[in-house]
Write a structure and sequence with these properties.
The chain is α/β, with parallel strands linked by helices. About 50% of the residues lie in helices and about 10% in strands. It has helices at about 10, 15-25, 30-45, 50-60, 60-80, 120-130, 150-160, 180-190, 205-210, 220-225, 225-230, 250-265, 295-310, 325-330, 370-380, 390, 395-405, 410-425, 430-445, 450-465; strands at about 85-95, 135-140, 170-175, 195, 240, 275, 315, 335-340, 380-385. The protein has an eight-stranded parallel beta barrel with strand order 1-2-3-4-5-6-7-8, surrounded by six helices. It binds S-adenosylmethionine. S-adenosylmethionine (SAM) binds near residues 142, 198, 201, 243 and 282.
């Protein structure tokens, strides 16, 4: 029986409940009265449950779909303004003992070179990332208790935070490693991580078990309940995601929102972020051999429906997507993007020959961070290198209450402008810098409180003169 309060994976992600939801959505996909009622509820910015959101995802009425897209854009503007948070992945190791059928790091792949960074190599990678201008990383590693034990991850986090190269610093390390114990999550929390991100891959248990035939990740319940254990270990910012392409997208969408409802019900705080990766070509992986690939149009609809269903949850898109697709979904609700990424182990310091690549998947956006930053600003977005919330202890429900209080423009906008100014001073090309200075000048007027605005003006001048790391 479906029970969002249950701590059992198969009860808070109930298969029959999802099937009923999909049948209900299908039945009402042209039901203008119901769809209007749901859109009306979403307009109140209080979110939707999985069933309501599934009806919007299934909606086949063109004019209502336009309203859904327009509402997603408006909600995005209201909660996130035009700020886009920047990050980069850092691959520590591609040793892995799992058998995931979609991932080239699977154990049986004897062809891919295996590599694990030493602390010295991590230092070099982090300096390269700092020299690009990054302040926020997502750590990635395969699951291998012998080669990549938690102690290795913890030591790596310590190394990363300790590196102060020129004006550079990594100020927030998010972590995407395999499901683990409450005790381990507690240690990650103590090491000062930001968000703990774990993709479900698929919520469909039977498919999950088929796609993960061997290794610790094959345990559906252990994987699905990982965010609960992370919360119990004190990590109150957790990130969800599914790998679109593995199962029917409507099933995944309903499962994802049920998972968010579960976290909200049990811990009083929903997911900090939702990622929307799509399956990509990789070493011995051909996405064409999976049946459930989704078009760019459906992808955009999913992003829009997530935005209206969970307005307070950040949405992340990676360089798995092309610049064109990224541009489209930025308008609809994505709030964080990566730039200048490498998905190979040691990829920021070493150019690998293609035939001996350690990469997890092929990228569709190969631009440098500077190019991505300039591109965002040309579209009127403010690339933000802000990490203030987590450093000020505004995580979990404290972050959510900042969002809900509408104070974001007095807090996040100033922080975005100040961290962008740092980027412009230290890392930008002359053209990007000129573009950025104009953008900052034009955005200052959007800070509502006059006192805050004058503090920001003063701090921007001080950053211009060499000071760093101001925050609200
Ligand atoms: N080993 C960890 C785990 O078990 O969750 C870390 C995750 S892995 C480094 C990051 C994510 O990449 C996976 O969760 C998966 O969704 C995604 N991924 C794997 N193979 C992929 C592919 N071929 N295309 C796109 N994304 C892929």
């Amino acid at each position: 029986m479906y029970d969002k309060y249950s701590m059992k994976a198969e009860e808070f992600i109930d298969h029959q409940q999802i099937l009923d939801t999909l049948a209900f959505a299908d039945e009402h996909k042209r039901d203008a009265a119901l769809i209007d009622q749901i859109i009306g509820k979403a307009r109140q910015r209080k979110g939707l449950d999985h069933r309501e959101a599934s009806v919007l995802l299934a909606c086949e009425l063109e004019d209502r779909n336009e309203q859904i897209f327009a509402l997603a854009e408006q909600i995005k503007k209201d909660f996130y303004g035009n700020r886009i948070v920047m990050f980069a992945p850092l691959y520590l190791s591609n040793y892995c003992i799992n058998g995931c059928l979609y991932c080239p790091y699977h154990r049986k792949n004897k062809h891919i070179p295996r590599k694990k960074l030493s602390q010295e190599e991590i230092r070099a990678e982090v300096i390269a990332l700092q020299d690009m201008g990054h302040k926020r990383l997502a750590l990635e590693a395969g699951e291998d208790p012998v080669n990549n034990p938690l102690e290795y991850i913890l030591e790596s986090i310590k190394t990363i935070y300790s590196i102060k190269h020129k004006n550079g610093a990594i100020r927030r390390v998010n972590v995407n490693i395999a499901a683990t114990t409450v005790e381990d999550y507690r240690k990650l929390k103590e090491a000062g991580i930001g968000t703990y991100i774990l993709f479900q891959e698929t919520y469909h248990k039977e498919s999950y078990e088929h796609l993960h035939p061997t290794g610790p990740k094959s345990n559906y319940a252990y994987h699905t309940e990982a965010h609960d254990r992370a919360m119990q270990g004190g990590i109150d910012d957790v990130g969800l995601g599914v790998l679109f392409g593995l199962e029917l997208y409507r099933y995944e969408f309903a499962g994802l929102l049920m998972h968010a409802e579960h976290l909200e019900a049990v811990f009083g705080v929903g997911p900090h972020t939702i990622s929307v990766p799509r399956l990509c070509p990789a070493d011995d992986i051909d996405p064409g051999s999976f049946d459930n690939g989704i078009s760019d149009d459906i992808f955009a609809k999913i992003v829009a429906c997530i935005r209206v269903a969970v307005p307070y949850t950040g949405m992340i898109i990676s360089t798995r997507e092309s610049p064109k697709v990224r541009e489209r979904v930025l308008h609809l609700g994505v709030s964080q993007i990566s730039g200048g990424s490498r998905t190979s182990v040691g990829g920021y310091t070493n150019e690998e020959p293609e035939e001996a690549s350690t990469a997890q998947f092929d990228l569709s956006d190969h631009r440098t961070l500077d190019q991505v930053v300039a591109w965002l600003m040309e579209m009127g977005y403010i690339p933000s290198f802000c990490t203030a919330c987590y450093r000020e202890g505004r995580t979990g429900d404290r972050f959510m209450s900042l969002c809900k209080s509408g104070q974001i423009n007095n807090c996040c906008l100033p922080n975005a402008l100040m961290t962008l100014k740092e980027y412009l001073m230290d890392y930008a090309s002359p053209e990007t810098r000129a573009l950025g200075e104009r953008l900052i000048a034009s955005q200052l007027g959007d800070i509502p409180r006059e006192k805050t605005r004058s503090i920001v003006e003063d701090r921007l001048a001080r950053i211009g003169a060499g000071e760093r790391d101001f925050r609200f």
